[in-house]
Write a structure and sequence with these properties.
The complex is a heterodimer of chains A (349) and B (84). Chain A is α+β, with helices and mostly antiparallel strands and 349 residues long. Helix content of chain A is 32%, strand content 25%. In chain A, the strands form three sheets. In chain A, strands 13-12-9-10-11-14 form a six-stranded antiparallel β-sheet. Chain B has a single domain (2-79), classed as Orthogonal Bundle (Arc Repressor Mutant, subunit A). The longest helix of chain B has 17 residues, at 58-74.
């Protein structure tokens, strides 16, 4: 079958020790049976490895940081679109999603660029600070949490939580604290990097299990693959993981997608206790960095999302292979200074 | 009791639980007992089989068997069989 040429812009090219999902998403797109993608990398930093991975990324452009605002992002995307005629954008960072969701309609109307993103309501509802309420609403177990904005709020924590607790940033980072002093230390460290608020979450003991899933926006689950982290880095990221045959976890996922009518990709992060209870820790409204495992298990989620973005009908994947593992690795690329110079000075490579 | 249906042991003694992602290694005797437990063999049947094959006294085997079954229970590899 002849594959259709298509141009897809992808963010999250930071394949570092706390990796963005972009490279995994691109690898999955390149495995598509239907499309022959030209990949445009959208980067925030000149050191994002994906910019220089020319076998995966055809061309890269710098885009403005999310904090710069929607208008600047739109202006830059239009500039890039004039050169590259983008068909679909797949954003992969939590911090940029607000802007992309806001721009979804305009990008479609003004540039004919398609995306397949959760609604703003879905995006906001599952924010870390709102997750406890989210759990109540959708009948999910969520560890108790509290949102704090200043160091003086820490004094109340010891009356409301037993130690240890988890100190989390709004978008990224999570550290375990065993006393008030450690909460303060983590509060400062995380808030400097990711801003406020900080979320204090009850610590639940158990093993970390995650699900990568996609919903079609009507309540139907198109695909879902559960994974247990086997090796976890000091940043809490899975360095290796294995796909599971866990019906209970899949049911929680499909029920959640059904009741929220989730649209697009998502990663669900759970703790599974020794009593086989599942506590939802986070919902990330995007593909996880380990999404390529789903491809290895027979479910190409990025390819399915691409089709849905293009308005095609997509059938749900009937099953996934269990016992498939992923193991990450580090790799030193040799880069000519000219390439670094070009992306640094002209914003494209 | 028997080994849960979705749990398999390979010829090398590698046991994988696809629900939890846990994996284990069993020695050849462990593999034999594991395979018998997959067929829902009773403790008496397993004991008779092992005593017939290996030079081991019954008391010693029963103690080791008890320990082995407890490990299998701990890792949730066993399920109870419903009796009519």
């Amino acid at each position: 079958m002849k594959k259709t040429d298509i141009t897809i812009a992808v963010t999250g090219l930071n394949a570092i020790d706390s990796p963005g999902p972009g490279i995994s998403v691109i690898r999955a797109l390149r495995k598509s049976n239907y499309y022959n993608p030209r990949i445009i990398g959208l980067s925030y930093d000149t050191m994002e490895p994906g910019i220089y991975m020319h076998d995966l990324v055809d061309k890269s452009f710098q885009i403005p940081f999310p904090s710069v605002g929607i208008d600047n992002l739109l202006y830059r995307l239009k500039e890039i679109n004039d050169k590259e005629k983008i068909d679909v954008i797949i954003p992969n960072f939590d911090a940029e999603l607000f802007n992309f969701i806001k721009l979804e309609k305009r990008l479609l109307e003004e540039c004919n660029i398609k995306m397949f993103l959760p609604s703003m309501k879905q995006f906001e509802e599952r924010q870390k600070a709102n997750l406890y309420e989210f759990g109540k609403k959708y009948n999910l177990k969520v560890p108790k949490n509290k949102t704090i904005y200043s160091l003086k709020d820490i004094n109340d924590i010891e009356f409301e939580f037993s130690f240890p607790v988890v100190v989390k940033g709004k978008y990224y980072d999570a550290r375990v604290a065993y006393n008030k002093d450690q909460i303060a230390e983590h509060f400062n460290r995380i808030s400097i990097k990711w801003g406020l608020p900080i979320i204090i979450q009850e610590y639940v003991f158990g093993s970390e299990v995650n699900v990568t899933a996609i919903g079609d926006g009507t309540g139907k689950t198109i695909g879902a693959v559960p994974m247990r982290k086997q090796y976890i880095t000091d940043k809490g990221k899975a360095w290796s993981g294995i796909s599971l045959d866990d019906d209970k976890l899949l049911k929680i996922t499909t029920d959640l997608i059904k009741s929220t009518k989730w649209k697009g990709s998502m990663e669900l992060e759970f703790i599974k206790t020794s009593n086989d209870e599942y506590f939802l820790l986070e919902i990330n409204p995007r593909f996880p960095a380990w999404v390529y495992l789903a491809v290895g298990c027979g479910q190409n989620h990025p390819d399915a999302l691409l089709k849905m973005a293009l308005g095609k009908k997509v059938n749900a994947f009937p099953k996934h292979e269990t016992g498939k593992m992923f193991i990450r690795y580090s790799y030193d690329m040799i880069i000519n200074l000219k390439e670094f110079e070009k992306i640094s000075t002209s914003g494209e490579l | 009791m028997k080994i849960k249906n979705n749990i398999a042991v390979s010829d090398s003694g590698f046991i994988f639980n696809p629900t939890t992602g846990d994996s284990f290694s069993a020695n050849p005797v462990g593999q034999e007992i594991f395979k018998m437990l997959q067929t829902a063999a009773t403790e008496e049947e397993i004991t008779a089989n092992i005593l017939e094959t290996y030079q081991i006294d019954k008391v010693r085997f029963e103690k080791d068997f008890y320990d082995f079954v407890n490990v299998l229970k701990k890792y949730k590899l066993l399920e109870e069989i419903e009796k009519d």
